[in-house]
Design brief:
The chain has 21 helices and 15 strands. By secondary structure, the protein is an alpha+beta fold. Strand 5 and strand 6 form a beta hairpin. Helix 1 runs parallel beside helix 4, helix 1 runs parallel beside helix 21 and helix 13 packs across helix 14. The chain is globular.
């Protein structure tokens, strides 16, 4: 996945929720009229459902192809796919549409929108259709299901899922006398490797850093989970609603302190918050290692071309926690209660198709997102694909080796987009020597906790 930057403010979150509550009441009042206006089903009728998504460029082209194939194989259902901009823009448009009861039948929402979507009351949990149909979810990846399961209900269907991995320049490793098949497993090794990988020109200017990663809140969350540590209280908001974030502890400080140490030593390049700027630095040979989403693998391979050989490794560790692992990112598909059950069932048919082995194979091969369906790995085409592109194995093996617990399930908070932006500002302050790690994280926690308090009050929790 090419990960989009999250910048929704608290005002947007509160506005969304207020709209949700108003819309929910309005829907109840007009339920009878809505039912009467819905045409009765028949074998000859074509049910049109609208699907909103946030996949642009090559991702959008692959998605549209899947929708086209569905429509060809399901003559009684027609899915109309509509690109709504990035995840933040899409959620904002959803709010406006729900005010006038004109929202889509299916919407793709990013991972950190889960708490809000549950609170909005706009969605029908896919658990309803799973239970009615006795749909076998054992064939789906359990780590992905765990993220989108809230209060023992699977609310949405995982679709485009990713985790962060380490990308490294195998050619540079060989030149530095490092084993090209042994990427660093922890930050101590990253420091050691970076000292050998660092290159400077005659004037002393760095031409190749050893390591880099964008100032991105998602990475901070991942390194918390890698230590088996919680981002928010109440079991990351999964045992009970989160009332505070708690990442200003030792685990959170470990992340920023290691990061700053590498930057201060001149071993790590700091290319700012832009995810693409750091990715482009790697493909241009300006950094020998960097952290990015598994969904970026195809983009990285295409960008590097024949310049050097690309290797991949697990997300580096900061300690030896056996409870640590990665949190899934990406997005899932939600069925909205905008229209009658007839349309909801048609939406369910589409979702089942999108997570089928054949479609998930196509999606994986054309995007880099890993399959959400385990059956894909038994397909000859998938085995051939992994033989040709062994770098893809890393994401799969990392996912399967991650234990399912409160740390790796990820946090549920209603103001997550704002929280990520706040964490990024805190990290910037530390890297720019404007605050100590503890000062910056304490300040970030205080700001986010106030936002959580306001959010929870708005929904009456």
């Amino acid at each position: 996945m090419i990960i989009f930057k999250r910048a929704i403010s608290l005002m947007l979150i509160l506005g969304l929720l207020i709209a949700a509550i108003g819309c929910s009441n309005s829907q109840k009042q007009t339920a009878t009229a809505s039912t009467q206006s819905t045409p009765t089903s028949s074998q000859d009728k074509i049910i049109e459902i609208t699907f909103w998504h946030a996949m642009g460029g090559n991702l959008g082209a692959a998605l549209n192809k899947m929708v086209e194939n569905f429509n060809k194989t399901h003559p009684n259902i027609k899915v109309i796919a509509q690109f709504q901009g990035n995840y933040d823009e899409e959620l904002n448009k959803l709010r406006t549409a729900q005010q006038s009861k004109s929202g889509p039948d299916i919407v793709q929402v990013y991972d950190i929108g889960t708490r809000f979507m549950v609170d909005s009351g706009w969605a029908v949990p896919v658990q309803k259709f799973i239970d009615e149909e006795k749909y076998d979810i054992s064939k789906l990846e359990p780590n992905l299901l765990a993220y989108y399961t809230v209060d023992n209900q699977l609310y949405s269907m995982p679709f485009n899922s990713s985790t962060p991995i380490l990308y490294y320049n195998k050619t540079a490793f060989k030149e530095a006398g490092l084993d090209p098949d042994a990427p660093p497993k922890n930050f101590e090794e990253i420091e050691q490797y970076s000292k050998k990988l660092l290159k400077k020109d005659a004037s002393g200017k760095v031409t190749q850093y050893g390591y880099s990663m964008a100032i991105y809140g998602w990475f901070f969350e991942q390194f918390m989970a890698k230590q088996g540590a919680l981002y928010a209280n109440n079991g990351n908001g999964r045992d009970a609603r989160a009332t505070a974030v708690v990442f200003n502890d030792e685990a959170g400080q470990n992340i920023v302190n290691w990061w700053k140490k590498l930057v201060d030593q001149g071993l790590a390049g700091n290319f700012g918050r832009s995810y693409d700027d750091t990715l482009n630095a790697f493909t241009a040979g300006r950094t020998a290692m960097f952290i990015a989403s598994t969904a970026s693998l195809k983009q990285v391979l295409d960008g590097v071309g024949n310049k050097f050989e690309v290797g991949t490794g697990f997300l580096p560790a900061l300690n030896d926690s056996k409870d640590g692992g990665v949190i899934i990112g990406g997005a899932s598909l939600w069925i909205l209660n905008t229209r009658s059950e007839e349309y909801q069932k048609a939406a369910w048919e589409f979702i089942k198709y999108m997570v089928s082995p054949e479609q998930q194979l196509f999606w994986h091969q054309n995007t880099g997102y890993f399959p959400v369906t385990k059956a894909v790995y038994d397909m000859p085409e998938m085995k051939s694909h992994l033989e040709k592109y062994p770098q893809f194995k890393t994401a799969i093996e990392q996912l399967h080796s991650t234990p399912i617990n409160r740390a790796t399930q990820g946090a549920l908070i209603g103001v997550f987009p704002e929280a990520r932006q706040t964490v990024e500002k805190a990290i910037e302050k530390v890297l720019q020597n404007q605050a100590t790690t503890k000062q910056a994280l304490d300040e970030a926690v205080k700001s986010i906790n106030k936002a959580i308090e306001n959010y929870n009050q708005t929904i009456g929790k």
